[in-house]
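Q: I'm building a small set of examples for a reading group on sequence design. Run inverse folding on the following structure and report the sequence directly after it, with nothing in between.
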């Protein structure tokens, strides 16, 4: 009972603080710290996020063979990525149209990073053994690079292949490293 009273007393003594007032008291070297702090909130109303059209890539609808309660996917690996993102309640869009100048791309996923509210593009490279796929992927990555979408910054690349399947555990590790 005494411990509870002590804790309650401590909680009552705590005062809410206004980060903007604290910033003003710290002086000019700390200008805009409050604004930077606020931008880390991962706002789902992010304008760039809202601008991404929901329309999925309409090419080859017959290849959307893997189904979950939330959607259809082109590969088991993409389905696993989607299920893991949904499991951790991380907002994503699957194969939305992205316009980079006069080019239109359909990244496998665009994710709204809950840590900073920034957009992260996620490409799963599952057919690198096919030469046509590899060349189109290289062109796509070049265009991404030109548009400021780069691995290690705002582009996640995963791949699998014969004898090296993509597992839910590996995807969970990527998610934890980038979004948690």
């Amino acid at each position: 009972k005494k411990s509870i009273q002590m804790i309650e007393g401590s909680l009552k003594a705590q005062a809410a603080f206004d980060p903007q007032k604290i910033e003003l008291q710290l002086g000019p070297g700390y200008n805009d710290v409050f604004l930077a702090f606020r931008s880390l909130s991962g706002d789902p109303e992010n304008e760039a996020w809202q601008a991404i059209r929901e329309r999925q890539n309409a090419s080859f609808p017959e290849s959307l063979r893997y189904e979950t309660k939330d959607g259809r996917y082109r590969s088991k690996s993409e389905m696993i990525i989607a299920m893991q993102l949904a499991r951790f309640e991380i907002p994503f869009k699957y194969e939305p149209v992205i316009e980079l100048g006069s080019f239109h791309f359909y990244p496998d996923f665009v994710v709204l990073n809950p840590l900073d509210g920034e957009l992260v593009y996620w490409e799963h490279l599952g057919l690198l053994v096919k030469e046509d796929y590899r060349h189109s992927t290289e062109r796509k990555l070049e265009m991404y690079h030109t548009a400021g979408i780069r691995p290690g910054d705002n582009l996640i690349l995963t791949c699998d292949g014969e004898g090296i399947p993509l597992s839910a555990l590996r995807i969970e590790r990527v998610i934890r490293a980038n979004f948690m």
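The two ends are 37 Å apart (CA to CA).
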